[in-house]
Amino acid sequence: MNKGIQVAIIVTLLLIGFSVFYHFVIFLPKQAELKRAEQYQHRQEQQKLADQHRQEQQKLADQHNKETQLSSCLNTAEEQYQSNWDMVCRNLGRSDKCVLPEILAADLNNQLNENKGNCANLYK
After folding, report:
1. Cα–Cα distance between 82 and 54 in angstroms, integer?
2. How far apart are CA 9 and CA 13, in angstroms?
3. DSSP 92
4. Does the predicted model carry a pTM greater than 0.85?
5. Phi/psi class of residue 100: alpha, beta or left (left: φ > 0; alpha: ψ in -120 to 50)?
């Protein structure tokens, strides 16, 4: 065989060997590393979105809880108002839900408004 052909075959085999070496030792590990980095970044983004969603849900739950507590407080104020009104009516010898003298009614109304204001301040 001719020396030139032998050199060409050796060079070709070396190039093929180097190409295979490069592909398996350098290229594929870099691709795997890039893929792991992308996956890690994707997991981080998903975790961040999940955390934001959880915070929004907690904020909504807190708001709903405040609204429920406010509603309960206002209902209690109304019930107390009606109970006090009926008690004053009975003390005057009248039936429940009677018409009270203006000064007594104004006092009970002021107390109701104060209690409602306290509720609003507590559950802003």
Report:
1. 41
2. 6
3. T
4. no
5. beta
pLDDT in tens, 5-46: 888 888 899 999 999 999 988 898 999 999 999 999 999 999
Phi and psi at 53, nearest 5°, equal -60, -45
pLDDT digits (tens, 9 = 90+) for 92-120: 999 999 999 999 999 999 999 999 999 99
Angle between helices 102-122 and 28-91 (to 10 degrees): 170
Q: In the 8-state DSSP scheme, what is residue 96? A: T
Residue 111 burial by Cβ neighbours in a 10 Å radius (0-12, 13-18, 19+): middle
HSE-CB at 50 with a 13 A cutoff on CA atoms is 6
How far is 19 from 84, CA to CA, in rounded Å?
A: 94
Q: What is the token pair recorded at 14?
A: 């070396």
For the chain, what is the mean pLDDT? 93
Residue count (the chain): 124
User: DSSP label at 123?
Assistant: T
